[in-house]
Amino acid sequence: MSPTPITTHNLGFPRIGARRELKQALEAYWRGDTDRQALESTGRELRRRHWQQQGDAGLDLVPTGDFAWYDQVLTLSATLDNLPARHHRAGDPVDLDTLFRVARGSDQAPAAAMKKWFDTNYHYLVPEFRRRQTFALAWRQIIDETAEAVALGHAAKPVILGPLSYLWLGKAEADDFDRLELIPALLVAYQDLLQALADAGAQWVQIDEPILALDLPSDWQRAFERVYHTLKDTPLKILLATYFGPLQDNMHTAVNLPVAGLHIDAVRGPEQILSAVDNLAVHKVLSVGIVDGRNIWRNNLQYSLEQLEVAHRRIGDRLWLAPSCSLLHVPVDLSNEQTLDPTLKSWLAFATQKTGEVVTLGRLLGGVATDADREAFAESRRVAEDRRHHPLTCHQRVRERAGSVTAQDCRRQSPFTQRIGQQQSRLDLPLFPTTTIGSFPQTAEIRRIRRERKQGNIGDTAYTNYMKDCIRDAIQRQETLDLDVLVHGEAERNDMVEYFGEQLEGYAFTAHGWVQSYGSRCVKPPVIYGDVRRPGPMTVEWIRYAQTLTPKPVKGMLTGPVTMLQWAFVRDDQPRHETAMQIALALRDEVGDLEAAGTRIIQIDEPALREGLPLRRADWRSYLDWAVKAFRLASSGVRDATQIHTHMCYSEFNDIIEAVAALDADVVTIETSRSRGELLSAFEAFDYPNQIGPGVYDIHSPAVPSVDGMVAVLERAARKLPADNLWVNPDCGLKTRGWPETEAALQRMVEAATILRERFSPVHLRGHAAGSGHEVEARTG
After folding, report:
1. Percentages (nearest 5) of helix, strand, coil residues in the chain
2. Which of 136, 176, 289, 521 is deepest in the core (most CB within 10 A)?
3. Region 332-348: what's the mean pLDDT?
């Protein structure tokens, strides 16, 4: 076959910077240390650098519109003049501070709700919709940045979220309001936006419709034809992008839309390549996402070429190549990693390397490969073979232990209705017991001390003494506030996953492998490259010390097996559930050691439980079975009198509430403040059998909550759930907050709990609980 040029492009690039420059600039601006001009200058420099890197790699089209000051969905909401009325009046000017009020809240109004972006650990700001609302082009960031890229000589491909995905991901103010009613008004604004992007110099536009990887109702499926028929006369060529899963029953819809091209995720759905080729019209481009945009393993170039060859023979230069999705979900550049094990490093690729892999695949497939491309192909084969047989990946005793797990290992000794009495006798807690989720403010000094120790500038003794001082301070503050169940504050922990992964075999950590979670919040996910094993206790001495400082119970704090899995870059050479069971066994050992040390309450956080849920309902049962089993394996080795807590945040529980109950945690704490109680409704409707702590205020906002607002959340919960099953807590950890606002908020939280205790009769509550006991026991026994 004669050489055929393959167009290569990217769906999006990490915006935070290789050294988290955007995070630092944002937080300096929010503190008032810098002005808006300095912040905007940092943004321009990051965009310029990232476009240049992608152009230098050889991509034919580079994305614009993937840069956001907080979140790309919030950027689109501002673009369309669809910001919450409590923060912005339609028609008024929009600026950066408007965006930040929506994202972070203010003294006058709560922030917009956050949700997980499909099954990733990225959070987006939820759009809000109302009947008969209008949309207009109000915020020109995407347009101006496209013109900026064109002026710098780049072939810019603006990226915007499609109208149907935008509507789907938002929420309506009324339950009986059909968001599809807004399509005509919304499309007027989209048409104006597309025209403005064309005027800015773009020729192609990437319109993301990731909901095409979901089970869609028929009216939403039918709406695609109506929407894209309206948009087909745009002066831009539309590349409709889908990702995070195969199209399946939405394939017919996608291939028949009046667009110039279709992008599919061939990492999550390799089987759909030929199906798309068979069904796509002869004048349309097929973009194949062949390099994994979600994980950090090096592409097996030979395997990828084998997947692509038939499609290339059949459609030639109508075949485009790209990553499977935006590279937002991976770190920026592997070349910054100087301390990784060289063998492991040879197995990895970050965003910069992944753009190179796309270009190399394009040249190899198109028959225009350079010597460097051929060497990259040979190196890829060597790496794949090396990894397949390397002893780093296998620990025989771990595999034998995981293979011998029994059903009894995953069950508590007694059902909740029997063990809760023992726990109450041992803990002696009041009605509406107060606690926090675990972490307290991580001051600059705490971070400095951890950094100094990591760099070898201070010794273990000095480090331990400093951390003990922090624990003592946290305990004293909590006792002054009169909280009922205390925490040690987690000053020694850099991250709720990284801290544990650093102490487990089979995990590795990068120095600069940061990815954005939301806003300025970045995480550095560990790399699970081999079988997971716990060499020794990870938290016991810190919790043991904290308990010596107070007669009140101090919770042991662990991160659960599903979250340890979800918030890591997981090995792709064995099923995920096998890795989850290995992690669960390591945590089971830690739980046992904490209990042996006298810890009365152990919290095993699973905020990522729902995040791991497959996008297609047909795949849910298999996932939930092993996810629940992993949690229960980690938590079920304790006596009845030891209380197990878990925490979950920013998840929709309605459709998995039975699985949450099946975890059989004695207490589950959840987020309810940003969703204004919506998440609590799942537990109310289900008549949740165990105890629950509805988060009574939003820790992500600097605003100090009102006592009345917290009382309202608790009173709502007590109308449907037994009041003596309710706990009082914030909605998440407090590490990102400062001490003054933290103490002020917790003081009000304790006041709210005191008010509730005075309003509810213990006699009535005991009767309420006893009346529901048979149902509870039936569910948990």
Report:
1. 50, 15, 40
2. 289
3. 96
